[in-house]
Here is the input.
Amino acid sequence: MKASIARLFDLAGRAALVTGGSSGIGRAIAGVLADAGAQVVIAARQRQRVEQAVRELVAEGGMAEAETVDVADRASIAALLRRLDDAGRTIDILVNSAGSNLRMPFEAIRDEDWDATLAANLTGPFLLTRALAPGMAARGWGRIVNVASQQAIRAFGASGAYGVSKGGLVSLTRSTAERWSRSGVTCNALMPGFVVTPLTAEASADPARVAAMAARTMIGRNGVPEDFRGAALLLASDAGAAITGQMLCVDGGFSAT
Ligand SMILES: NC(=O)c1ccc[n+]([C@@H]2O[C@H](COP(=O)([O-])OP(=O)(O)OC[C@H]3O[C@@H](n4cnc5c(N)ncnc54)[C@H](OP(=O)(O)O)[C@@H]3O)[C@@H](O)[C@H]2O)c1
Here is the structure.
């Protein structure tokens, strides 16, 4: 490979914060960012799982650190930001992958379900973006990648509060891009299809449902977390410098049928 191509995707000297980086799609993204040379901070609620992911990345030759955060909790986000600040850690790449998907019929959504969903999937990414984008802009380079959902653009499977939160996240992606892109900070949304992870464990337990979802794709299979490595690296690196405010579907053609 030519050095100029390697340079496009080289993240040496960059620091990334990946919320939800201990599992599923976030774990795969944390892995590719570390493989590309970034120093990766993984943050989620369960420290043990974060530390396990960090051990794996370090064993593979990457640079990674463990943090805890509940992105549905303003105080927890503020505390994380304070710790990063105290450690002198500047963040160049923010990946908002932490999310929750409470599935219930619309009429059964309780106030607390609505509030918890919006807090984790929309307000958390907003708070982190508002805190970190100005520093990226001041340094003239930044990348923000939000993990949204098909349910941002179509309703299916009790999309209730979840679809609304992801629709908001796509709008946040555009408003972030509109504010910061001229300063070298891009913001884009990854749009998964159906990906087998702990988040979808309930649906994955039904083979007929899994097969039906796979049949709706063009590639004939459901997603796996590793599918996000290439797309995330594109959006997080110099290769994606002119891509901003976009939704990138990594869904095997699910959304195109
Ligand atoms: N899997 C799919 O089919 C699919 C489809 C469309 C969109 N997505 C989106 O993709 C993202 C990742 O999902 P996934 O399938 O990879 O799920 P996953 O494997 O269950 O991983 C979720 C990650 O988020 C963390 N997390 C959850 N709630 C959190 C909170 N309040 N604060 C901090 N961390 C939190 C979890 O760790 P802790 O539990 O330790 O906090 C874990 O690291 C989500 O935003 C999801 O909505 C997934």
Residues 3-195+225-251 form a domain with the Rossmann fold fold (CATH 3.40.50.720).
